[in-house]
Amino acid sequence: MRVVILGGGESGVGAAYLAKAKGFDVFLSDMGMIRENYKKELDELGVDYEDGKHSEEKILNADWIIKSPGIPKKAEMILKIQEKGIRLSSEIEFASEFTDAKIIAITGSNGKTTTTSLIYYILKEDGFNVGLGGNIGKSFAKQVAEENFDYYVLEVSSFQLDDIQNFRPYISLLLNLSKDHLDQYNYNYEEYALAKFRIAENQEANNFFIYNKDDEMSKSLLGKLDLKVTKVPFSLSERLEKGAFSIDENFVVNVNDGFTMNIDELSLLGKHNVANSLAASIAGKLLEISNQSIRNSLMTFQAVEHRLEPVSEINGVKFINDSKATNVNATYFALESMKQPVVWIVGGKDKGNDYTEIEDLVKRKVKAIVCLGIDNQKIIDFFKGKKTQIYDTSSMQQAVEVSKSVAEKGDIVLLSPCCASFDLFNGYEDRGNQFKNEVLKSEKPMAIS
């Protein structure tokens, strides 16, 4: 079998490892330039590859093509592949064909990384032989090639789900839905939401689908879709006899023997993280992990980097890195969890954002807006007249300097951009790391918990 891999990043090189391990004829192609460390791995594997171009004659003779989630669906080469009827899969689809491990797969517009990391932590703390992959950690395919895990916890994006055929997790989670990546889905919210629901389309009655009963789009689509899977809900507004819920200070999991705790015992802050913890707890109970073990993990888990990550406290001002908030809904949750006045750093590559969702929160909680991007006009125009302090910056250094000059003792400087990072940065990690570096550069910080 000839396997062609499009994209030479973590998932593409991981797919090359697995394809090579299975004895396939492997070729990898990347329109961009492949990083030197990945080139070295491909050379050591003996995989033929190219970068800076896609050679049609080397690609369109494939039996199976594995596509990086970063390649747009409407890219010219993808359309040609589809015209020829060649099987086109994501790395998660490809890898799942070669493992009998149980898969716990997590998707949603927000909270994927935190919930994936939390479920992995719960399993690891309980002694499970488990791997972490998908959009987080090492390539899933590479782990299937080299490891022998009994379970995988995978963070899965809509772009990866676009390219599945048989992918069937033992447990799937759809945390929430909000308008994101609409530029890739014809600016149609339902089309994007249906891509997320593909996580459950191949599941059967002996599998589990954990979903958010408070999410309006999820409720609407569940009424239309014919899913065979066993559904388990969670809610922040409704008491559930089956599933999990949190009302007032109570955190209640009614799955198998179930347990309760107080939300003040959770290590993660914010209402959205209560929801994430409910979803993770359900997964733990479905895997028959003890109540005490789950409870201990919920109390000791540490927040993931770039997601409401405390950086430091300088002269009484707290600095928080939420660079992973690349859409309006993610920033909504961040602002909602703030208890002190906020100097808000926002901006980047707009994905069709509608800021009305956070307008009221900004009015109530934000004292100054620091725009960070090449073109900040849309944000400035929206909030003009609603906030008097709006600053226009085009570098992280400038944004942090302005924020420090505006913030007073007792304030929070929050980087929660609402936007993708690719106008000024190499990704949300680069953006978050630059923020941390600039914050810590000139003044001696105090550690904050």
UniProtKB/TrEMBL annotation:
Give the GO biological process terms: cell division; cell wall organization; peptidoglycan biosynthetic process; regulation of cell shape
Q: Does the keyword Chaperone apply?
A: no
One annotated Gene Ontology cellular component of this protein: cytoplasm
Give all residue intervals belonging to the Mur ligase central domain: 106-283
| Chain ranges of the Mur ligase C-terminal domain | 306-418
**Which keywords fit this entry according to its UniProt record?**
ATP-binding, Cell cycle, Cell division, Cell shape, Cell wall biogenesis/degradation, Cytoplasm, Ligase, Nucleotide-binding, Peptidoglycan synthesis
Which residues does ATP bind?
Answer: G108, S109, N110, G111, K112, T113, T114
- InterPro entries in the record, alphabetically? Mur-like_cat_sf, Mur_ligase_C, Mur_ligase_C_dom_sf, Mur_ligase_cen, MurD
User: NCBIfam families from the xrefs?
Assistant: murD
Q: What does this protein do?
A: Cell wall formation. Catalyzes the addition of glutamate to the nucleotide precursor UDP-N-acetylmuramoyl-L-alanine (UMA).
Enzyme Commission number(s) of this protein: 6.3.2.9
The UniProt entry's sequence similarity note says: Belongs to the MurCDEF family.
What is this protein's record name? UDP-N-acetylmuramoylalanine--D-glutamate ligase
Q: Which reaction does it catalyse?
A: UDP-N-acetyl-alpha-D-muramoyl-L-alanine + D-glutamate + ATP = UDP-N-acetyl-alpha-D-muramoyl-L-alanyl-D-glutamate + ADP + phosphate + H(+)
Give the organism the record lists.
Epilithonimonas lactis
A molecular function (GO) held by this record is: ATP binding
